[in-house]
Amino acid sequence: MQLLLKPRFVALDSSHLGDVARDRASMNGERKCTAEKFQRAFDASNNVLLLSWHHIQELLSHRDDQVVVERVSYLKSLPFVASVRSAHGEDVVGGIIDILAFEVEAAFNTPTMDAAKVRESVAPGLLRVGSGAEIIRSFLEAWPLLKPELAQRQERDREIVAISRSGFAEVSHLKVVDLLRGNVRRPEEIRQRFSAMHDVLSEDIKKRGDRRLSDAEAVSATFLESVRLLGIGTLTHDNPGLKILEASGIDLSDIDENTTVGEVGALGAFRGKLRVINRMTQLPWDKLKATVSARRLPSQVVQSGVDRFRPDAREWKGSDLNDAHLSCLAAYADVTYVDKRTHEAMRIAKDKTPEFAMLVRRAEKAGHYSDIPAQLNAMVPDAG
């Protein structure tokens, strides 16, 4: 009687997948042999490649069409792969939004579950299996529309990372109650304040933003103009600070005397995600935001840990955002390969945050994809 082994779902880093595809298509016999040897060894050890939308996004976003063709050919050659399900029930590979949607529904339906229990509830139905050709088909059908969208997404990711890493506003440490009690600044003071923030933000982007950002001045100006317009819209209110909280989906009951601007910003960002997800789940909003907190959602715990402990770098790369999304797979994959800095962030988060350590399974790194089969074979099966 043949023993049936449980497959080991392995999420590789996008750079590893790109390198395998490149070497597989290479005219260099040694490189081609290395790629083929890797695939045979990977498949022979009961490993199943796990893909998400964020892998596909990175692989298909290369500016060289020939590189994209090589990557598509590699994915189509894979007879058996796993992928994240779509929360819409569509025949497409899902990403962080889909994972969050499943987690939010589970957390909402059973308010007593913590993040670990939510993971246990979501995990059995999160993945689906099929061929690489099936997974990539929908992307190829939509390629004329998808190609420019991917380019725009890359540029937007670079902007988001640069703005979020800059300390241009220098108000995250202030207590919200102090701002609510404060007086509104005079128009000239506001203008001077925004001018100073623009100078700092644009300089940060020039020095440390992703080198592929097209225009640091424009990124800074556009973002701060949107902030200014939001501010102007609140000045006619009796309490502008309160109006800003309301616009962010935050009630006075959500804060106390010690709540900082930084904490409100994090809560506002989470509530924004929750609103997006609720367009899919259609749950009662007031009950949803009162019931589901970020600390009860595995992917939010993982991503916030990675963001918090990511080692600073000379360049704030837009790909950091996708790397953070891919790190969330570590709560569900048996093994998740990440880049060097994400791996270090996860190592620190595991040491310092019990909730993070409880949720993340194996997070690994590899200098070259050819090292991965031996690493996987050497691993002791995880109890998680």
Give the H and E element order.
Answer: EHHEHHEHHEHHHHHHHHHHEHHEH
Structural class: mainly alpha
Number of helices: 19
Strand content: 5-15%
Number of strands: 6
Which of globular, elongated, flat, extended, rod-shaped describes the shape?
A: globular
The unreliable regions are none
Instruction: Characterize the main sheet.
Output: 6 strands, mixed
The rounded distance between the terminal residues' Cα atoms is 28 Å
- Main-sheet strand order equals 4-3-2-1-5-6
Radius of gyration: 23 Å
Helical percent range? 55-70%
Overall average pLDDT: 84
What can you see in these coordinates?
There is one protein chain. This protein has 384 residues and is mostly helical. It has 19 helices and 6 strands. It has a 6-stranded mixed β-sheet. The mean pLDDT is 84.
